[in-house]
Structures are given as C-alpha cells and as structure tokens.
Amino acid sequence: MPESRPQEIPGRTMLLLGGGATVAAGLVLGLTVLVGGGPGGSGGSGPGPGTTVTTTQVGRSEGAITVPPVTGLGSRAATDRLAERHIPVGAVIRVPSSRPSGSVVRSYPEGGTPLAGGEQVTLYVSAGMGG
Fold this sequence. Notes:
Elements: H1 11-35, E1 65-66, H2 75-84, E2 89-95, E3 104-108, E4 114-115, E5 121-126
Parallel strand pairs: 2-5
Antiparallel strand pairs: 1-4, 3-5
C-alpha cells in the first residue's frame, strides 16, 4: 500500500489566501471604527448597551467659535455642550480606554481651539478596557 503524504499548497495560493484574509480583517476593523463598534456607555452619561453611535449634525452660526473643553464628560453631555455653542459634531468614535465607558477621552480639535466656518468636532469616547 503506497504511503499517503499531505498535499502541499502552492506558494501563490498561500499568498492569495493570506492577502484575502488581510483585506477582510482590514474591512472589519474599518467598519468597526466607522460605526463605533463595542458595547455602549454606562451610568446614563452615554449611549446604552448595544447602541451604535453614529454621526450627528447640529446647527452652526457664523462667526468665530472656540471649542469648549469636553474631555472627561459623558458623550451626551459633551454633545449637548457643543450644541449649545452651535458646533457640529462630525463623528463619535469609540476607542479602548481605561476611562469609564461612555466618557470623552479627547476631541479633535481640542478644547480652546478656534473653529473655522463649517468645521466639525470629532469626539473620541471610551469603550472601556475591552475595546
């Protein structure tokens, strides 16, 4: 009886499989960042569990406006503070952080920065240690 050996996969096939897996992983990561994947906030300061955070637009008036400091606030409180000054929120992005889930880790532009007409603020909100 002849000895059976495992069939080897050609190098080109391995390269294509690896490249496809890399592209798929990149798409999943990119979509997760875009839709703010991860569990929701806690303590009433942010969105509830399972809530997907999306882009929000608020009104804006003409003239020079300075971004208020929002780091450390809950995402809802930060959005409200920006809305009071008619500053549009471009996106809310969930990031892994040791800060409590739902609290603002940073904003871009940062608090104290004057905004040009039509500029938006991006909020980076803690998703907690689990990511």
